[in-house]
Amino acid sequence: MKTLKLRKVAIDTYKENVAYLHRDCPLYRSEGFQALNKIEIRDGTETTPVIAVLNIVDDETIIAPDELGLSEQTFSQFNGIENSAVYVNHATPPTSLRLVHEKIAGNKLGKKDFLHICEDIVNNRYSKIEISAFLVGCAEGGLERDEMLYLTEAMVETGQSLDWGEPMVVDKHCIGGIPGNRTTMLIVPIVAAHGMLMPKTSSRAITSPSGTSDTMEVLAKVNLKPDELRSIAQHQRGFIAWGGSANLAPVDDILISVERPLALDSKGQMIASILSKKIAAGSTHLLIDIPMGPTAKVHTQNEALKLRKLFEYIGDRSNLNLEVVITDGRQPIGNGIGPSLEARDVMQILQNDPHAPVDLKEKSLQLAGRILEFDPDVRGGQGYYLARDLLESGRALKKMEDIIALQGSNLIPTRPAQFHYQVLAPTAGFVNAIDNLQIAHIARMAGAPMDKIAGIDLHKKLNDPVEKDEPLYTINAEFNADYQFAKTLAVKNSGYTIGEYNEF
C-alpha cells in the first residue's frame, strides 16, 4: 500500500487522536475514507498502530495530498519524526461498542465488560462521540453499585498505580458543587506538617469555576511526573498536583474531557472517578466530603446518606479505610471564586491574616482534624485542636512554602483583572439564600478557570445584613466579552435572595 509522509499540525485536540488527510490524496478515494472515520496509522514496525479520527482538508497549506497530518497529541506518539513514511488503513471498530449499546438499552454490565470498554478507550479506539454515548448510557440507565465497583476497578487497571511503601497514606476529596471550597490546599500542609503522608493528586474543573489543581497552579507547577511526585512526598510528606500527568486512571481524564462540555456529572461516574484516582494514587485512608444544600450536588440528608453508603460499599471492597462526612453546602465557602482569588484566600489563612475567610478556615480545620485522627496516636476529638495548633504556629505555612518550592513556584498574579462589576443589593434586609450554581455559572462566564485572575469576590454571606445598593459581590473579568456575559447573567439573576432575618 502507498505510504504517506507524516506532518505535524499545530492543533491541540485534547485527549483525542485526530488525523488530517487532503481531499485530493489518492488514498482518500481509493480506500473510501470519509470524515470522522477512524483510521489505523502504522510506521512499518511491529508496534501497535495508532488509532485516530480522520478529518478531511481542502487546503494544501495545511496538508499536501501526499501527507498525513496529525494533531499534537497524535504526533507525539510517533516520537516527533516529521516526513517519516506511514501506512494508513481503516480501523477495526472497537468490539466493546456492542457493550455500550447494551448499557444504553438499560442492561447491566459485568466486570469484564467495563474492563473491555476502558481498554478500548485508553487505546484511543473510541471517538468522543462514542465516549459520549457510553457516558449518557451510564447516566440515563444508571449504574448499580456493583457496576460502579467494576468501573472503578477497570479505571485503575488500565493505568499506573503508585505504591508508597507505607502502611498509611491519607487523602481527602470533596464531591464538589460548592464554589470556593478550597479546603484541600489547607489540609495538605496541616497534615503533612504533622508528619502523615498525604500525596494529593487533584483534578481540574469540570463544571466549576476552579478545581484544586487550577488553584494550586497559581502558586506552583502541578503537571509533575511520578518520579517527581515521589521525591517531593519523600522530602515534604505531601504535595498538591494534577493527577492527569501521572497517568493515574487515565480513562477518567478522557471521560472528564467529554463530560466537561456536556456539563455531565452523573452519580455513578462521579464515584468511580473519585475512588479510581484515590486507589491508583496509593491511598489507604480517605475522607470524603459531601456538601449538602438546596443548590449543592446533594440536596437532602436522605440523598447524602445514600451516597455515603455507595462510597462505603466500594471503599470496603477496594481495601480503602474510608470515612464520609456530610457538610454544610448552602453557600460558597471562602471569599474568592476563581483560581487566583481562591489562592489568595488560602494564603491569607496560612499566614493567619485577620482578613482571611473564617468559614474556609474552620471547615478546613474540621476536615484536617478528622484526617489527623486516622493517626492511632491522636485521640478521637483531639484532631481539630492539633490542626489548629499546626496552623496558628506557622508550621502549616512553612510546609506549604516548602511544597511550593519543590513543585516549582509560579509567579502569583498580583494585578487585578481589567473589568469589574459590583452586584448590588436590590433592597435592604438579610441574605436568605445564595445559589451555588448561579454564582459558579457567573464566575465561569467571567472567564474562570481558564483565566486565572477572573472570578468573583464575595462580600456578603448567609444571614448577613445588607443595605439597599450595598455590594453583594464583585465580578472580575480580564476580557470585555467575558465581562459582558457575566454582567448580563448577574443582572438577570444575581444568585442572592434578600429578605427578612431567618434562623437557619
Describe it.
- This protein has 504 residues and is α/β, with parallel strands linked by helices.
- The chain has 4 domains: 4-90, Barwin-like endoglucanases, CATH 2.40.40.20; 97-157, Transferase, Pyrimidine Nucleoside Phosphorylase, Chain A, domain 3; 170-248 and 256-407, Pyrimidine Nucleoside Phosphorylase, Chain A, domain 2 (3-Layer(aba) Sandwich); 419-499, Alpha-Beta Complex (Aldehyde Oxidoreductase, domain 3), CATH 3.90.1170.
- The protein has helices at 26-30, 72-76, 97-104, 111-122, 128-141, 145-157, 184-194, 212-219, 226-236, 250-262, 267-280, 301-317, 339-350, 358-372, 383-392, 395-407, 436-445, 480-492, and strands at 4-8, 18-22, 38-42, 50-57, 67-70, 85-90, 170-174, 198-202, 238-242, 285-292, 321-328, 336-337, 419-424, 429-434, 455-458, 465-466, 471-477, 496-499.
- The strands form 5 sheets. It has a 6-stranded mixed beta barrel with strand order 1-5-2-4-3-6.
- Strand 10, helix 12 and strand 11 (321-328) form a beta-alpha-beta unit.
- Helix 8 packs across helix 13 (339-350).
- The chain is globular and about 75 Å long.
- The N and C termini lie far apart (73 Å).
